[in-house]
Specification:
Order of helices and strands of chain A: HHHHHHHHHHHHHH
Number of helices of chain B: 2
Number of strands of chain B: 0
Shape of chain A: elongated
Helix content of chain B: 40-55%
Radius of gyration of chain B: 24 Å
Largest interface: A-B, 69 and 43 residues
Oligomer: heterodimer
Radius of gyration of chain A: 33 Å
Largest sheet of chain A: none
Strand content of chain A: under 5%
Largest sheet of chain B: none
Number of helices of chain A: 14
Strand content of chain B: under 5%
Distance between the termini of chain A: 129 Å
Helix content of chain A: over 70%
Chain lengths: ~260, ~80
């Protein structure tokens, strides 16, 4: 009885206490001008990226450039900022503005020093522009970012060969052959290194390997013809130029091969 | 007369082209340094807004691949 009375008293006094609630969570301030502007900017970056990539995929480079110029101006955080510069560089390059494109790729790499695709495209552009020192510098940076990358080694080999650094070019093309022995192009480029070093026998061996891997490789067949001709093997050289003339898709190479064949 | 001039001009141009090709061929045989180095690699393709935040970015894969085919390089 006493216990029941005690419980009844406790229920009455408890009910009389004021209700307590946890502190309300602040509601999101979506109408705050700053937050609203940020959301609008993020949305615009998102939409322009999608439209820009779509334009690049259908090779509409003017439309792509306009979209990515706006994204760059909106200055999104990483990795979007460097990706936008990379995409804009791609469009500018296709519009014939390689100088602008190289500047954008430099900016992308400044923002993200590990951006391998930007480093790769910078090497390709500098090689295309024929700036040997810039190509070699870009290739060295790419190789530092991705030392095991096949494309980095290939770009460095081409840049070194064009710059006349034969030991570096030889090391690069040998590394490519070690990584992918069936890659005929590396054998061809190694042959050019050996030819420039005056080692015709080593060059001929590499050209034979390139042609064993890819018999219709017209450029390698032509180079073999010149090596055979210099070695006094005129009949073999004639066969090589004749085959080159049949395989070459490039009309200038075909004309040269026909000219040399007909002289032998 | 005009026809004669036209044929003379065509002949001169053809001779010039032949001479140019001959000089080019001599140069290539005598100077191995004039043989053309392989082409520069093609530019890698576009990257989407979220491309580099995930694992599905084709240009980044190509740029770090360890084989020629992975890097998208031509075989000749």
């Amino acid at each position: 009885m006493a216990v029941a009375s005690l419980l009844a008293f406790a229920a009455v006094t408890g009910a009389a206490l004021p209700q307590t609630y946890s502190r309300p969570t602040p509601s999101p301030r979506l109408t705050d001008p700053g937050a609203l502007a940020a959301r609008i900017r993020d949305r615009e970056v998102h939409e322009r990226f999608a439209r820009g990539v779509g334009a690049e995929e259908r090779s509409d480079w003017n439309a792509a450039a306009a979209e990515f110029r706006r994204v760059v101006a909106l200055d999104p955080p990483e990795p979007k900022g460097s990706s936008a510069r990379y995409d804009l560089a791609l469009a500018e390059s296709h519009l014939g503005r390689d100088d602008v494109a190289t500047g954008l790729l430099e900016e992308a790499l400044h923002r993200d020093p590990g951006f391998a695709a930007a480093a790769a495209n910078l090497v390709a552009l500098q090689l295309r522009r024929g700036d040997r020192a810039a190509a070699l510098a870009a290739a060295e940076r790419y190789l530092a970012i991705a030392p095991a990358a096949f494309l980095a080694r290939y770009g460095h080999g081409l840049a070194a060969l064009r710059a006349g650094d034969l030991p570096a070019a030889r090391a690069d093309f040998r590394a490519l052959i070690d990584a992918d022995p069936a890659y005929a192009v590396a054998h061809y480029d190694l042959a050019l290194v050996e030819l420039r070093a005056g080692r015709d026998d080593a060059a001929r061996a590499e050209l034979d390997r390139a042609l064993a891997l890819s018999p219709a490789y017209a450029r390698a067949r032509f180079a073999l013809g010149t090596v055979l001709m210099r070695g006094g093997l005129r009949a073999d050289a004639r066969v090589a130029f004749d085959r080159c003339a049949r395989d070459a898709a490039d009309p200038a190479l075909r004309a040269l091969a026909i000219d040399l064949r007909d002289r032998l | 007369m005009r026809e004669f001039l036209r044929w003379t001009m065509a002949g001169v141009l053809a001779l010039g082209a032949c001479a140019g090709a001959a000089v080019g061929a001599e140069l290539l045989v005598d100077d191995p340094g004039s043989l053309v180095v392989s082409a520069a690699p093609a530019l890698l393709g576009p990257i989407t807004e979220s491309g580099r935040t995930g694992w599905d970015c084709a240009p980044e894969h190509a740029a770090t691949a360890r084989t020629a085919s992975g890097a998208g390089l031509p075989r000749t």
